[in-house]
């Protein structure tokens, strides 16, 4: 590990991977927070962990987990604010998970939007109400992108503090 730690390429590669993860958050199809977290984990493995770096890595891990969950929470919450029922939101979540595997990279979002549209249209017998719930789901998606990018920047900032001041 010492050879990697003393190399001139390791830190620039980690920064490039984190930048790719941050960019991935903006296009919603790449698990950017997980990519950033993995790059920081690689740094910790190569340089080692001590008490303070372990605490910082724990905070980074909690941010990654929270950020990965927030998109589903915000999408569901915004859809519910527009009148969507929780069963429809649950169906949209399941459809989104299935869509991620069936039609990558945009299948998750597409399947979730279509599912909530159909289920709310059936439930309320009003196409416009289904569209309204779909709009809420998409608004939550947009908000989650903004929040996850901010979380990614905080994760990278914490890593930067670790890399600069804690060895």
Largest sheet: none
Report the strand count: 0
> In terms of structural class, how would the helical and strand content be classed?
mainly alpha
Rg over alpha carbons: 19 Å
Summed up, the domain count is 1
Q: How far is the N terminus from the C terminus?
A: 15 Å
Instruction: Provide mean pLDDT, rounded.
Output: 91
Percent helix range: over 70%
Number of helices: 7
Spans where pLDDT lies below 50 across 5 or more residues:
none
**Inertia-based shape:** elongated
Binned strand content: under 5%
What string gives the helices and strands in order? Answer: HHHHHHH
Would you write up a description of this structure?
The protein is an all-alpha fold. It has one domain. 86% of the residues lie in helices and 0% in strands. It has helices at 2-5, 10-27, 32-47, 51-81, 86-102, 107-124, 127-165. Helix 2 (10-27) packs antiparallel against helix 7, helix 3 (32-47) packs parallel to helix 7 (127-165) and helix 5 runs antiparallel to helix 6. The longest helix is centred in the last third of the chain and has 39 residues, at 127-165. The chain is elongated and about 65 Å long. The mean pLDDT is 91.
């Amino acid at each position: 590990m010492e050879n990697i730690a003393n190399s001139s390429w390791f830190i620039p590669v980690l920064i490039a991977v984190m930048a790719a993860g941050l960019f991935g958050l903006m296009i919603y199809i790449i698990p950017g927070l997980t990519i950033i977290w993995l790059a920081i984990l690689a740094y910790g493995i190569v340089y080692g962990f001590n008490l303070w770096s372990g605490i910082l890595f724990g905070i980074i891990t909690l941010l990654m987990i929270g950020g990965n969950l927030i998109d589903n929470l915000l999408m569901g919450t915004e859809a519910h604010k527009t009148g969507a029922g929780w069963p429809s939101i649950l169906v949209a979540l399941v459809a989104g998970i299935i869509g991620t595997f069936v039609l990558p990279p945009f299948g998750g979002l597409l399947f979730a939007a279509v599912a909530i549209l159909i289920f709310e249209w059936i439930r309320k017998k009003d196409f416009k109400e289904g569209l309204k719930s779909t709009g809420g789901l998409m608004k939550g998606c947009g908000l989650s992108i903004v929040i996850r990018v901010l979380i990614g920047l905080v994760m990278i900032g914490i890593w930067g503090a670790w890399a600069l001041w804690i060895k």
